[in-house]
Amino acid sequence: MSDDSIRLVTIGRILRRRRRLLTLLTLVGALVGFGISLLMPPRYTTSASVLMPGAWGERELLTQSEIATSSVVLERAAAALGLPGVDGNELREQVTAKAADGNIIKISGTAETPERAQRLSDQVAQQFVTFVEQIEGDSTAEGAAAPEALRQLVTQTSRRIAELADAAGSGQSVESVQTRTELAKLRTSLQEAVDKLAEVDPAAAKANLVVMGPAVRPADEAPPTRTQLIGAGALLFFLLTVIGHLAAARMSRRLRTEPEIAAALGSTLLGTVDVPGEPSGHQAERRGPRALIRRLLGLDIRWDMPTPRTSGDEAGRKVRYRRVSARLRERVSAPLRVLFVVPDGDESARRAAGQLVTEAESAPSPGSSSRGRPELRVVEVSVSRPMVPDREDESGAVVVLSAGSWTAGELAGIAEACADARHEVIGIVLADPVRSRPSRAAGRHRDAAAPALAVGADSTGGSG
């Protein structure tokens, strides 16, 4: 898994083999989302629209939006609402304003109830219009005083022009006539400017803002709603579970290939044997609360292993065991005395070792009868603190294990434990779990092999 890219088949394998765990954690996520929704009261949002007549630029509309949420407007709205303990700073978190198309300022209010949200939006919009009209009214008063002063200045200028015209003479000379004519034109232009200025209405510069009706009372909650929180919690826990499985598989250092396993144990591979699916009798042996929980959640089945292939018949599987036994006899001098070392918890390897003991005992000796009866033992060792029995008269040890179940460090620890007990690892046998085809003959073979599968730690397979 660490070297393979994540494919859809991997996701499908997680969904198929961890469906119980995924279902449970998804429900837990939904409950977490429901709990968060209880801590967050429902919120309702509505908007009131204010029309800005005239030509407004984008920056001007942005300025008006900032004014709508300014502290002055919000303080006035809070005072008008008369809510105890509510001030402008608190309303700042509940009110937003933005410029929309058509010179419209949309003021949105959020509150715990639809009625309060509607009142909040309407009140802020009204206070915004009042504040802007107040500002424009002050500007209009200042603008009205300026034209009056200008009229007085123009009147004084006209008198001065008349005095200059009288002082220019009676108009008997050409120069005096030209001077009087220019002064008359200047006085006429000033009078026309004053008349046009009088036609301008100071009140025309005032921006008549219009509130476009009351805010609509909201019927639905503002996001995130309770349903959204529950769905988000369920989806989050589901995705985290899937991602956690993928991350754990990528970080896994369990050895899967034959060369890696052989290098970790420092020995050679004798062969691979097929182990049919575990019978129900062995499932019953796993008891206790933890085993029950693992079975209920489906954690007793490895998800990152490929689907076991369908095995052939019982005769084909026995051929594999005989061939491994024959290779073992070739590597061990007579009589055949071997210690089968099985990692604790590797049920497939334990069953394979028991079947190897049965086949080795039942196989005829290739030489004379002086080779002796095989003396075989199966021991299970803990991978965390491996301990192998001291060597007695064994010719060596054979490690039986399943591929993809143990790391290089764990296998190296088993090899060191064998070396400490003066056992030479003379070979490795891999147990390959397969799906057996249901048949009566296969059932009889499994029943016949049951005593060999019960071989436990430090048990002797060759005692007669």
From TrEMBL:
Transmembrane segments: 21-40, 229-248
Lipid bilayer topology: Multi-pass membrane protein
Low complexity biased stretches: 359-371
Ranges of residues in domain Polysaccharide chain length determinant N-terminal: 5-66
Major subcellular site: membrane
Source organism superkingdom: Bacteria
Record localization: Cell membrane
Pfam families: Wzz (PF02706)
Cleavable signal peptide: none
Annotated segments matching region Disordered: 352-375, 436-464
Keywords for this protein: Cell membrane, Membrane, Transmembrane, Transmembrane helix
Keyword Ribonucleoprotein: no
Family affiliation: Belongs to the CpsC/CapA family.
Protein name, as recorded: Wzz/FepE/Etk N-terminal domain-containing protein
Organism of this sequence: Streptomyces solicathayae
Lineage: Bacteria, Bacillati, Actinomycetota, Actinomycetes, Kitasatosporales
